[in-house]
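Example 3.2
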Amino acid sequence: MRDDKEILRHSLAFSHEQRGRSWWCLISTLGVLVALVGAIVAVDHLAVRIPASIVMGLVLVRVFIIYHDFQHGTILKGSRVAKVLLHGYGLLVLNPPSIWSRSHEHHHRNVGKTYGSSIGSYPVMTSQAWEKATPAERRTYLFQRHPLVIAAGYLTIFFYGMCVRSLLADRRQHADSALAIGLHLAVVAAFAVFAPALLPWLVLIPMTVACALGAYLFYAQHNYPDVKLLEGKEWTYLAAALGSSSYTRMGPLMRWFTGNIGYHHVHHVNAKIPFYRLPEAMAAIPELQHPGTTSLSPVQVWKCLRLRVWDSQQGRMVG
């Protein structure tokens, strides 16, 4: 295996944006979103509205990945049009730019550490810390990682965690969290007053699907059976990317909906690789081809969700 610098240097070959492709991904994805909205509005039938609403939630996840890459400065950097569209999206779906950037940058710098990694990520407690924790600390920890909390990510993680909590922590630094709360509630109120029949299909169901899937993907990317957490000098940026970040196996359709975020170990090697080039980078760099893996199958989801604490003696997450 080559050293870290050589691998990182190789990854730079894939960190160049293909500007036209970036625009196509954004415009075509927004086009699909508009088409789904049109179908829901035009056809008052459950056989259309139920699947269209669920698919709309999945498409919102793809828009989020585009927003995520834009926030990294990976795609469409310097475009005012993209900034208006994507920051507007972030505010409407309860992902205000300020807290997302701050927490996500911290996450990239600290992923895979046994301590100091819970900002912008799910908290991880060691078995030793668990033994010393008070009952209240244990309940809080288990609550934050509970499957129902992840499934209810619309309210628990995005509305409260991303917006309300950040606003309470620092109103000046995260003023856009107040704007996100206000805009989202205004949209919900407008539908409730003027088009209540459309509120579930255009807002509540899509947001529930998008936030639940997004919350779970973010969980499983760093909480999977083969994950390795590192301490002290063991931790390096590349070791964390390859040992503490998963590859989620998906079919072509789910890879499209999730913007290739299943190639998460590649993203952590180099966050400047556009999402549409992550498979290309993995195929070309031998060291990226044997990651810890998971999938969206019920069995694999259960295996990830049952993990609770890091046992340093066994060197793995345990139930």
